[in-house]
Amino acid sequence: MAKLSLMFEKKLVKEVPVGSRAVSIGRSPDNDLPVDNLAVSNYHARVYFEAGKLVVEDLDSLNGTFVNDMRVERATLHDGDSIWIGKHHIKVDSRGDAPVPWDSGRKANAPRINETMVLDTKVRRDMLQQAAAMGERTQFAAGRLKVPTIVVLSGKTDQKEYALTNKLTVIGKSSLATVRIKGWFKPAMAAQINQRDDGYYLVAGDKIPSVNGAPIAGPVRLNDGDLLEICGVRLNFIFRE
Amino acid sequence: MGLFVLSDGMGGEAHGEVASALAVETVVKHCMEGENNPALPVFGETQAGWSAKTKRLSSAVHLANKKIYESAAAHSEQTGMGATVTAMWIAEDRLSIAHVGDSRAYVLRMGGLQQLTSDHSLVAEQVRRGILTAAQAEESEMQSVLLRALGANPEVEVDAEEQPLFPRDVLLLCSDGLTRMVTEPEIAGTLQSDPDPGKSAEKLIALANERGGADNITVVVVTTNADSKGWFSWLFGGKQKSSNGTGTAGGK
User: Fold this and answer.
1) Can you tell me the distance from the alpha carbon of A240 to that of A229, in angstroms, rounded to the nearest whole number?
2) Do A204 and A187 meet the contact criterion of CB atoms below 8 Å apart?
């Protein structure tokens, strides 16, 4: 199995194997290879297998990723290569077997799946990883940690901030509402936020809410930083790290 | 009792049906036993804020997973069988939901259809991660690939949560056979067209059939009403099209 060794000068800092999952490199401590140096971006680069080849990909880092002495955005790695990130370097040891890539055989024996099948966790991880590599650059680690949050800017509510953990969040006077609006003549269910696969949608209830000053005509997908006004209560929708 | 369970089975021969029947039977039985005996063990992780019913419902789904897994392990011909499950338990104006797989729960409220569950399918996960758009997911050949189902592993992660209910809410449980054939606006329109939940369930199945729905389609519709004192009552109707007969639904 391929192995990455993080070195500082001649000293070994950390060693990790590269399996079906990508190895992340960066200053943030939740990386697989954390590099504690201000010249290194939080999520700087990652290394993974694609179609049987070991690949390094720079994640738009400020100071760049170098393989041997060449700056790269993305490069195939060979046994004995060194990835340079700031003053650290990572030695690549890719002797031994590469995992069987899911992608290479996909077209040939493309499973025409009509019957439902369940993936076990290992296959699932491989497939998602491969799918990620095929798709746009996506920083999973960073994206997954963000929690959709409603921050109350003005108006009477039972809390100042709400993390949206339910599939459907009710905003209103009802004692069962997640975001409880207080005061006379407020509707039991003023508006709702529905979590869909592709985002969070604001939906009208007994009142038509507005987003960034414009009343909504139907369900509206919310973006980070949107300002909502519902029955005189002003809310800020944000993705909190 | 206000308990509604829908399960869609998978696995060759008649084993999908065995799995879905086992899922529904186990969930209903465990919830009923829990009502009579609050000391009945609770399986799986629960959250402190959950009501007793939500805890029990989540526990029942964990138990159903175990039963299906054990049955498949004990009978070699059942290898690979599994099931989805989406269960709702109504207590007055509160709804408990527990869910694994790609069947769905929706609420029709003020004319809008809101989804109460997330599909545990590969394509849905790819949409959540920004790899596919929702439109690409609908075209994908990988739609049937599930990341979670009952019976696949000895333990399963169960999605459970609570929702408030409002007068005139209409609740829908359906298997993927419906949602692949009929769009959400059509579902919303059909649910609004008839106050009788049995009839709207029939209409939904008929609509999916017109489109040549090859898959098994199972639908449960529940309408909630509040009387003058604010007490809730509910009416329900279910309907099933079984071309390969792997779906099961039950209500108590």
Assistant:
1) 20
2) no
Report how far residue B125's alpha carbon sits from residue A148's, in angstroms, rounded to the nearest whole number.
17
Angle, helices B184-193 vs B197-210, to 10°: value is 140
Short-list A150, A204, A192, CA closest to A168? A192
d(CA B126, CA B130): 6
Query: Torsions phi, psi of B222, nearest 5?
Result: -130, 125
The rounded distance, in Å, linking the Cα atoms of A164 and B206 is 37
| CB of B73 less than 8 A from some CB of A | no
Question: Is B153 within 8 Å of chain A by CB?
Answer: yes
What gap in Å lies between CA B198 and CA B205, rounded to an integer?
11
Give CA torsion, residues A201, A204, A209, A210, to 10 deg. 50
Per-residue pLDDT reduced to its tens digit, B186-202? 999 999 998 889 999 99
Would you call B146 an interface residue with chain A, using a CB distance cutoff of 8 Å?
A: yes
Sequence-separated (6 or more) residues with CB below 8 Å from residue A180:
A157, A158, A159, A172, A173, A174
Contact between A200 and A168 (Cβ < 8 Å): no
Band of residue B238 on the pLDDT scale cut at 50, 70, 90: confident
Name residues whose C-beta falls within 8 Å of residue B182's C-beta, 6 or more positions apart in sequence. B190, B204, B207, B208, B211
pLDDT at B235: 79
Give the pair of three-digit tokens for residue A219.
Answer: 């369900």
Q: Which residues pair with B93 in a beta bridge?
A: none
Q: What is the rounded average pLDDT for all residues in chain B?
A: 89
| Run of H or E residues at B23 | helix B15-36
pTM of the model: 0.72
Mean pLDDT of chain A: 81
Q: What residue of A is the nearest CA neighbor of B13? A: A115
Q: Which of A116-120, A188-192, B78-82 has the largest mean confidence?
A: A188-192
Closest partner CB to B149 (pick from A118, A195, A198) = A118
Cα A4 from Cα A23, distance rounded (Å): 9
Closest C-alpha among A170, A166, A158, A159 to residue A204: A170
Chain A within 8 Å of B140 (Cβ-Cβ)?
A: no
CB contact under 8 A, A205 and B124: no
Locus of tokens 């804020």: B49
Contacts 24+ apart (CB under 8 A), A216-225: A219/A194, A219/B112, A222/A148, A222/A193
Distance of CA B117 to the CA centre of its chain: 9
What is the spatial distance between Cα B49 and Cα A58, in angstroms, rounded to a whole number?
Answer: 43
